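Subject: mismatched residue count in predicted assembly?

I count 779 residues in my input, but I want to confirm that the predicted structure covers every chain. Input:
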Amino acid sequence: MITVFKRPHPLSDVSNTYCPGCTHGIVHRLVAEVIEELGAEGDTIGVAPVGCSVVAYNFFEFDVQQAAHGRAPAVATGIKRVHPDKLVFTYQGDGDLAAIGTAETVHAAARGENISIIFINNAIYGMTGGQMAPTSLVGQVTQTTPYGRKIENQGYPIKVSEMLSTIEGAAYIERVSVDSIPNIKKTKAAIKKAFECQLDKKGFSLVEVLSSCPTNWGMEPSEALKWLRENMIKQYPLGVYCDKR
Amino acid sequence: MAEIMLAGFGGQGVLFAGKVIAKAGMEALKNVSWLPSYGPEMRGGTCNCKVIVSDGQIASPDIAEPDFLLAMNAPSLEKFEGKVRSGGTIIMDSSLIDKKISRKDVKTVYIPAKKIAEKMGDGRLGNMVMTGCFISRYGKIPLSEVVECMRRSVSKAKASLAELNIKMLKAGYAF
Amino acid sequence: MAEKFLMKGNEAVAEAAIRSGCRYFFGYPITPQTELAAYMAKNMPKRGGVFLQAESEIAAINMVYGAAGAGARAMTGSSSPGISLKQEGISYIAGADLPCVIVNMARGGPGLGSIQGSQADYFQATKGGGHGDYHMLVFAPNSVQELVDMTARAFDKADEYRMPAMILGDGMLGQMMEPVEFFEPTEPDALPKKEWATDGTGMKRKKNIINSLYLESEILERLNIERYERYKRICEKEPLFEEINTEDAEIIIAAYGMSARIAASAADALRSEGVRVGIIRPITLWPFPSEIFARRAAYVKAFLCVEMSMGQMVEDVRLAVEGKCPVYFYGRTGGMTVEPDAVYKEVKRILELKTAGGI
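Triage response: the counts match. Full output below for your records.
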């Protein structure tokens, strides 16, 4: 029998807790595939955020630390300084990374901290039930912007990849999307580049993954991917924003 | 035991003079404490430190009534003159403070420390002249101990600076 | 005899940490503890360690979380307002059962307060500070030498019980210099390996998880109960205190840290006049040495608790004494120092009250 598809070893053999149609599962799998391909499972330490992926430690086979809301880059810094030769990455959502944890994110980049961040941008707070995120689009209706996000009141969405690419310590920053098979493949390639960048000790790397949240967007999964494609990519253009490899 | 208050402007070497006394005191008398004022005073305001040297245990490092006051500017003298223990000693730099001490129950030493230091080549070392003067009046820390401390605590590169400091100490001691 | 150094409290605690095998210090500048960070910045690179000035107190404590979870001895230091910011991280560290040492060279509060030494962070240190059911070990040294000794002990006990430990000093202790002797250094490699640490599975063991999240309340309750069983053992085994002249005392002064030294000055003066005064100085504030207070309460006429605060430890003294005798309080606040003479007068005042049958 020829095996054509199997669970990558770093991904735990458990059911995840994400909603149907959520793209977290895809990104988890991509992370695990890359770690397996790099042969790094035994030398990886992940950091889980606060948000839907708060229990990510249940879904991976390598060591994981769970961090306070927004503090994952600081926690990862502590780990990396103790184990400079291990692969240390954080997995964070938009609220965690770009609202409460903005300072930690920006300063980890500024230090050129040799860690990688997988940044899930789905323009909403998922775990708390669909509130406005710093990356929510103008006009987007959420539980806390029931009349749509208004510039006069909530200001503009933060473009994390663009912002961080202006920082000298950043070595690799790419924005990708998981809305289609080709884009999922590009996402995996980007994650691999980021991790390799770290293993080569080039400094701070971040992959921003545009993702969908069908539950809190109030859409069917396929409809959500369409919305992502038609609205989010316009606001957040895909591509490599910084590459100093 | 002696409780010593050193006070002046930030930048006059008040804290350093206190450290020299504490370090030499540690060798000569075993127990010492050194407590600085800190904060905005570091940047040009008034500055003081409290040094206790003792052959017994030191309870509080804080000093309410010093046995010795080394005053290096007028505001310090004004602030602390009244606190000196009856029978204590006030040593003041008379080249910086144009004032006589009114109290009759304390010993007073008017020493033009800054002028002496200037004459010997560096007016900034008045603090060491003051320190030397204190050492002679206190009498329980040998001058040789202070000199040794000074030599030990500077790097080779700064050895000449240490010697200049020692010259100042000796001048104050002889005053 | 070991070599004696004349050092500031802030520098001595740093040197003691390095000698205890701590190679990771994460901090943020604040008066009056800055010399601690400066000493680490200067010496960590020379001793194979890491000093990192974090972007905030919050980041610093979370870096400690990461480094401690990765198996290393890690430290952060600050002063009162900065320690308030760290409370989130301290709660997580306690919840994840991580050992680390946090130094608080406390200053007057609340708010931005003053920069002079204070003991107004007793509640914060001993009763939580952060959210949830937890404690940390709290050591309150009263000299630069004890600061050194307690720093070493804090690292050992934090590791032994897998919990955060705090060195609670104050601005005065941090800033003052005293002669100090150091113990022989321990290399990090010589410390026992932490099997629970996230240092990579090496494909040789099951994954380790550092975590304080338990979505099932039954599990969280069980873990909290287990943690409190550990705390109970600590309360039995670990209280430290010093007693001076309590055998024949009719009044005992309760004071810790710098206040205890000031109280000792007053007690000396009182003893020389024949006043039978003693001192109990808690060295660990958590666990609080309640038992000794209960024992002495059986025969003394009164306690006087002296603090550089509006009265915080006095509540624990009263709990320990259980109403067997009156517990008075004298304190200064806002960064003001208790003066020996004031303590002297307060003791006299209380004893006169008693002669007059006023208590």
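The first strand of chain C starts at residue 5 and ends at 8. Marking this ticket as 'not a bug'.
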